[in-house]
Amino acid sequence: MGCIASSQRVDVTTMPNTSSWQVDTGKETVLIALVRLDQDIASSEKLHPAQRLAVVSAELQSIQQEIKEFEEMTSPVANAESYAKTMHQIFVNLDLYRRPMLASENEDFVANVNRKEMRKLELIWLRVREKELQSEKRSLHAQLLRIRTMYIQLQQLLSCLWSENQRPEIPLEVACERAIAFRDALASVSARLRAAAESAHTALKLLDDALPAWKLTTVGKSGWERTRACSDACRLLVHARCGERGARRVLVATAAPRAARALRLALDYAFTDTMHDYKYQRATEAFLQFKEALVQLVNSIHQVILNNVENLAVAEKELMENRRKLRAARVNDIVKRGLADLKYESSTLTSLKITPRQ
After folding, report:
1. Which of 151, 298, 299, 350 has the fewest other C-beta atoms within 10 Å?
2. Rounded distance, CA 126 to CA 243, Å?
3. What GO CC terms are in its UniProt record (predicted)?
4. What total number of domains does the chain contain?
5. What share of the chain is helix, strand, coil (3-state, %, to 5)?
6. Angle between helices 277-336 and 170-215 (to 10 degrees)
7. Phi/psi-derived region of residue 21, left when phi > 0, alpha when psi is between -120 and 50, beta in every other case
8. In a domain, 316, yes or no
């Protein structure tokens, strides 16, 4: 257990040279330092930053690839108001407010314009999400650097106190390494599931906000009010679809469900569908079916998370017990050898390292 587990070795910034024990420890003894480092490592790993970083990095890479594809053909709108104004101008130019029967004849043209505007909204969402992930990635890097520093310090302390084949309870070290590997495997699954659940929950919230706005599209007093309500609903639904796609991205489920495909088509024709009762009802049903699919996705993820949490708790408990036993064995050996009061400082540890150990 003297070093970081292989599953936790992720690409991070190069560590500074810590071989000289440049730590302001005051009067800390090697006994206290060993216990402190071991407990700090265990505490820092409770939130599984390495596993979370793997999920964040994968999602960030996928989003950045999507952004490149979008930027080849899409330039973002300045704000949400531009979307409503663009669609309003189309309706004015085609005289659809005064002659709603023309909506059916021009629905493909309006849908094409709307589709391009919604791609701009998707690009905005992707860029916001990219910034969020980049910020979290930097924070996780900092956490992992701290953990790696503590692992290096612990390894150096162990190498000063014992040679490789003289450490107490070597079988316990092996047991700890196995427990860490098992814990990390479960934590990787947990991090992926929790990220997917978070994206799906966000999508559900956006959808719940969109449905009231969608209802306003048929009761607005003016054409502008109805178009503005429709643009608000479409913007929220586009972002909800992005959230649902984000959940599938994390779960590596590339195929979109039927409800998501139906939603996309309904969004394309949303503005002209509001002018016909039966088409409006059909679009509303597509939105509700998408919500039902999201609820099913969330429930499925939660079911797997519950099983994972139970297994992860058992693994954490086993690892904690193994670490406690190994720490106690090391402490007892230090006390037995009369090194309990040895100061945790560079000069003392260097002299101890070159002194033959009994």
Report:
1. 299
2. 10
3. cilium
4. 1
5. 80, 0, 20
6. 160
7. left
8. yes
CB 295 within 8 A of CB 302: no
Question: Residue 235: which of 214, 256, 215, 216 has the closest Cα?
Answer: 214
Nearest to residue 87, comparing CAs of 279, 271, 225?
A: 271
Determine how many CB atoms are found less than 10 A away from the CB of residue 43: 10
Q: Smallest Cα–Cα separation from 21: which of 344, 353, 355?
A: 344
- pLDDT tens digits for 276-293? 999 999 999 999 999 999
pLDDT by residue (tens digit) across 108-147?
999 999 999 999 999 999 999 999 999 999 999 999 999 9
Q: Is residue 309 part of a domain?
A: yes
Q: Answer yes or no: is 222 within a domain.
A: yes
Domain containing 189 equals: 6-14+25-354
Torsion of CA 331, 332, 333, 339, to 10 degrees: 70
Report the amino acid identity of residue 267.
L
Torsion of CA 161, 167, 168, 173, to 10 degrees: 120
Structure token digits, residue 273:
């569908």
Residue 293 domain-assigned (yes or no): yes
Count of Cβ atoms closer than 10 Å to residue 184 Cβ: 19
Residues 331-343 as b/e (b if ≥16 CB within 10 A, e otherwise) read bebbeeeeeeebe
- Burial class, 189, CB count within 10 angstroms (exposed 0-12 / middle 13-18 / buried 19+): middle
Residue with the two structure tokens 């024990």: 21
